[in-house]
Amino acid sequence: MAAVLARNLYRSISRYPTSIAGVSGTRRWLNGGLLNPVTQLSDEEQMMRDTVSRFAREKIQPLVREMDEKSEMDKGIIKGMFEQGLMGIEIDPQYGGSGSTFFSSVIAIEELAKVDASVSVCCDVQNTLINAYFREYASQEMKDRYFPRLAKDLLGSFCLSEAVSGSDAFSLQCSATQGGDDWILNGEKLWITNAEHAGVYIVHANYDFSKKHRGITAFVVERDTPGLIIGKKEDKLGIRASSTCTVTLDNVRIPHSQVLGEVGKGYKYAIESLNIGRIGIGAQMLGVAEGALNATIPYLNERVQFNRKIGEFQAMRHLKAELATQIEATKLLVYNAARLRDNGLPFIKEAAMAKYYSSEVACKVTGRCIEMMGGVGFVKNFPVEKFYRDAKIGQIYEGTTFIQLNTISDCIDKEFIN
């Protein structure tokens, strides 16, 4: 029986290419049916991790508390991420980008989130939503116009959600009507990340409501376009330094050349982009959990009660081990989804699993870290309470926990039908 199972497993694995392209300068070979571990990093990936980790410690960490209290991102941080090449990771070098992989984006997002989830999501949205959207669906003329700026100093915002369309994203009411050679956009978008500092917005609007979601089209709107109004920032529980604003479109007139992709395909583009973006959120939540535990363990090894370091008590040892195990499981889910995407393999189910599980683990780990630290974990002098507040958004944005579970269930059903 074991031999039969082994043969079937080998046949299953053998359906994949005998060599799977990894990052530049590496190949992930099937040797006897075995792949390299998904957590094994190439030299390029390790360099990315080291570079981002150093930038986060030296440039971001000293400003984290101030940015959180002021609910404001330091502009020098955004500039620094552009200078470090972190805002155009997959953009081709001919446009000034890093020309790296999606997996490298995931590493950058994770490392930033170990220090500040607000900075991490800024990088995440730029790479996994904005740049990916342009790369997959924009015309060559549009790529030539925007990629050099997106890699250098142009921050983007993804405008989909509205008051009536959250999880039911395609019930949006933002309208697009034709006026001569132009499109005229009207409506209001809510919960828009990066809106305060963005210079370009991908706006989803419906040009024909009789076609329902098939009327939804993606438009590129620049910040200085008349009628585009950025509202005040939301006063949020977590990721406070990340700007979240309303974006109002009041008779915004743009030329037909600002249509991103094909008219009526915006719903398809949005779904596909969010499937990718969920892996990025998974990386962010992974980093939040890692950052919280990293901040807690030194305290366990220093705090003394009953003449013993509290980290020596069995309860603390077991809890530390449990949390570390769940973080490692999260890492495997996130990294596997990213590797699948880079290699052109199906990843929708795995992306939803990564996003779902990572957000659950981040909430649990950060909460437990506060409990292990006691009173000092509850005050702002230590970073753990901020990790706790930042973790909650992972269960909400880019598809709630329940939406991820629906997606996972749908994928399982399709697998069994097929």
Give an overview in words:
The chain is an alpha+beta fold. It is 50% helix and 15% strand. It has twelve helices and eleven strands. The chain has helices spanning 2-14, 43-60, 64-70, 75-83, 102-113, 117-137, 140-152, 266-300, 314-342, 348-373, 384-391, 401-417, and strands at 19-21, 27-29, 156-159, 175-179, 182-193, 200-206, 216-222, 228-233, 244-255, 304-305, 308-309. The protein has a four-stranded antiparallel sheet, with helices on one face. A three-stranded mixed sheet has the order 3-6-7. A two-stranded antiparallel ribbon has the order 1-2. Helix 9 (314-342) packs antiparallel against helix 10 (348-373). The longest helix is centred in the last third of the chain and has 35 residues, at 266-300. It is globular. Mean pLDDT is 93; it is low at 1-27.
Give the SSE map.
Elements: H1 2-14, E1 19-21, E2 27-29, H2 43-60, H3 64-70, H4 75-83, H5 102-113, H6 117-137, H7 140-152, E3 156-159, E4 175-179, E5 182-193, E6 200-206, E7 216-222, E8 228-233, E9 244-255, H8 266-300, E10 304-305, E11 308-309, H9 314-342, H10 348-373, H11 384-391, H12 401-417
Parallel strand pairs: 3-6
Antiparallel strand pairs: 1-2, 4-5, 5-9, 6-7, 8-9, 10-11
Helix pairs in contact: 2-5, 5-6, 5-8, 6-7, 6-8, 8-9, 8-10, 8-11, 9-10, 10-11, 10-12
Features:
418 residues; 4-stranded antiparallel sheet; 3-stranded mixed sheet; disordered N terminus
Structural class by secondary-structure content: alpha+beta
Coarse morphology: globular
Give the overall average pLDDT.
93
Instruction: Tell me the Rg in angstroms.
Output: 22 Å
SSE order: HEEHHHHHHEEEEEEEHEEHHHH
The level of helicity is 40-55%
